Amino acid sequence: MNDGDEIVFRNVAAASSKALVFLNSEGGDLKAGIEIGRAVRLRGFATATPPGTLCASACALTWLAGSPRFLQPESNIGFHAAYRVVDGKASESGVANALVGAYLNQLGLSETAIAYVTSAPPEGIAWLTADEAQSVGITYDAIDEDGPDPASEAGKTFPHDPMGAVTAFYSALAAADGETASALVVPEKRGKGPFNEASIHAFYGAMSQPLKLTGTALRGNDDVRVSYQYVTNDGRRCKGRADVQTTYVFGTTLVSRIKALDGC
């Protein structure tokens, strides 16, 4: 896990209402692991480890956020105290461990579980066993290779639906809900230009009469022409049209481009 991975994850996660997050990492940036974990818990995603892999340190902190958590019998989850390197030697970081403790408390882990997660020294690692998990209260579901695949439920995709995606996007604009509108946009364009959450809220929230979608027409396989009207904060009545391009990605339909044809 690297610094900035949490931003990439949040952008991808915003496109999904349900997901199973597979984790395979020796660790890395503590902040990234915690912030990805917070995003996982906020959205109610499940976490799992693929067969024969390890998830340690920052990765294990992310795994703890899953609702529920899955663990393959051949996989390894490992914890150790947060540390900093001084003169080439790893030593525990009180500040970092305080942040880890606060995060684990937010996840609802018991004091016993928090102590276990942060107990191993920086140069060592505590590999979670079934007995230890039970004794400290870290619950998880073991994946039975002969049973149902948990990814089959969490990995379901949605039908290709340009009309539905565009209608939902403009409904979010009408409500001045920048976060929802941005979540309906392809990840690489979120937060930029007309897809910036704060800009959406500021512009559409200032209207004296909110935007109203007056017509939609499918043009080809992916494009939708929309008609709309609204009244600005200075009383101007505006009617406009736009061509909205969509893309099917991550198992759902997202807005990728808007070309205004006319309007105020």
UniProtKB/TrEMBL annotation:
It comes from the Bacteria. GO terms for molecular function: peptidase activity. Keywords: Hydrolase, Protease. InterPro entries: ClpP/crotonase-like_dom_sf, ClpP/TepA. GO terms for biological process: proteolysis. The keyword Protease applies. The keyword Transmembrane does not apply. This is ATP-dependent protease ClpP protease subunit.
